[in-house]
Amino acid sequence: MENPNKRKNKDGGFEANVMAILDSTGVREDRDLHDDRLSFLEAVRAGAFLSGTPSPPSWKMFDAIFQILRESNSLELTMASYQLLIDLDKHYPRVYLKSLDRSNSSSIGVDELVVVKEAWSPFILDSDSIHFEGGGTCKNSFHVDSLPIENLLLFQYLVSILEADFLPRHALYKESLDWALFRESLLNMLLGSRRLSFKTLVKECITIISKRCHQHTGISFRELKDATNLTGSAKMAHDCDVALSFSATQIERETCSSMQSFMSLIMELDMIRKEADLHGLTSRADGLRIPLLEIILDELTYNTDYISPFLEVFSEPRWKLEIVLQYFSKYSLKNSIRTRRAKESPDDATFAGILSYFSAAVSIKNIAKKTSLEVAQLLLAHAFQASLSLQHDQKHNASFAEKIGSTSQYEICNALISAFQNIRKIDEDSDITPFQKEALFTAASIVSQKS
C-alpha cells in the first residue's frame, strides 16, 4: 500500500483543491455547509477509486472524513462518510498477508504479515494512553449506550478497524504461534491502555445486547395500512419517519453484530494470551487484565435476567457454548473447595459432561441450590443450539470435538431429553419456554431419525 503522505507530492494540488471545498469562510447557511461536505466526500471517493491513477487520500483528507463521521448532525453525511471510510479500508488495507515466493525450495510456506505503518489510522496509541485523530479519548468514542446514529456508526467503524488488524495476524498465528503478532495488535494495545475502562465498556455492551439488541422497534402492519389514508405533506412526513425508523433499526442491528464481533475478538485474544502464558512467551510488559469471559460470567450471574436475552442475541456458537459451559462449571457445579492448583478446570468442561450432572436427582438438587432450574434449562437449550451449529460448521470442527466431548449427536440428544425429564421430576412446576420446547423437539427428531 502506498504511503498516503506521498499523495500530495504525487498529485500536486489535488489535496489542496479537495480540502478547499471544506473552507467555510463566508458560508452562512447550514445547507451550504452540508453540500460542501458532501461534495468533499464525493471528490475524495473519485480520487481514490475512479481516477486514472487512483491512490489513497492524504492524512488530512482522512482526518476530515473521520471528523465528519464524528461530528455531523446530518444522517446523509454520517452515512456517506462512514461508507467511504469502510470502502477505503477495504481497498487500501493497513494490515494484510503477503504470499511469499514458493519457487524457492527453502521457502517454508508461511505468509508474511505486512503492516503499513505510514497508513492513516483513527487510533493513535502509545505506552500509556490512547486517543483518536482529531482529538478525543477512547472513553468517549467507545461509548455506545447513547442514541445518536453517528455514535453507533462510529463504534461499528472502530470495530471494523480492530477486526481488519486482528484477522491477518490470527491467520498467521495458526502457522507460526508467535505471540508478538498480537502483542503489537491494535486490539491488544487498546485493551492495555490506561485511558480505557475495559470493565465498564464490557458491562455497557452486555447491557445493550441484553436490553436493546433483541427488541428492535419496527413499523406495524396497521401503521403501514393507515399510511395509505394520508395525503400531501402529511404522507411525505410519514414516509420520512418510516424510512428513518427502518434505517435506525438496521443500524442498531449492525451495531449489535459489531458488539458480538468485538467481544469475540477479545475472547480469542484472551485464549491466545493464555496459551502464550503457558509456553512462557509473555512478560511483565504485557500487563494483566481480567479475561472478558470472566466479566461476562459475573454479569450474567448477578443479573440473571440478562441470561436469556444475551444468549438469544449472542449467536457465535463457539463462544456461546464456552459461556454456558463455564457458567455451569464455575457457578453451578463447582466443588465446595477448589484451589488454584486443582486438576479440574472450567476450561476442561464439555457439554456431555454437563449433561451427565442432570442424570441423578441428587446432583440436580445440588445445582438447584446454586442456580434456579429455570436458568439451568435455558442454558442447556442454548448449549444444545450452539453444539448443533458447531457440528455443521467445518471451521469449528476442532472446537466441536473438544467442547462436546467424545459423545455422538444421538447420545447428546438423548441426554438432553433425559435432563429435562429429570428436572421435571424434581420441580413439576418448572416452566418450559418456547425456545426450550424447540430444542427438545429438535433433539427428539434427531433421535427418531437415528433409531
Fold and architecture overview:
With 451 residues, this protein is mainly alpha-helical. Helices cover 63% and strands 3% of the residues. The protein has three domains: 92 residues; 200 residues, no CATH class; 135 residues, no CATH class. It has a two-stranded antiparallel sheet with strand order 1-2. The longest helix has 47 residues. The N and C termini lie far apart (58 Å).
**Termini distance?**
58 Å
Helix content estimate: 55-70%
| Quaternary structure | single chain
The global form is elongated
User: What Rg do the Cα atoms give?
Assistant: 26 Å
Number of domains: 3
Which residues form runs of ≥5 with pLDDT under 50? 1-9, 216-228, 237-242, 336-344
The largest beta-sheet arranges its strands as 1-2
- Extended strand count: 4
Category from helices, strands and their pairing: mainly alpha
Tally of helical segments = 21
Mean pLDDT: 81
**Percent in strands:** under 5%
Helix-strand sequence: HHHHHEEEEHHHHHHHHHHHHHHHH
User: Sheet with the most strands?
Assistant: 2 strands, antiparallel
Brief synopsis:
This protein has 451 residues and is mainly alpha-helical.
Key attributes of the depicted protein:
451 residues; mainly alpha; 3 domains; two-stranded antiparallel sheet; 21 helices; 63% helix; elongated; disordered N terminus; transcription cis-regulatory region binding; SNI1; Negative regulator of systemic acquired resistance SNI1 isoform X2
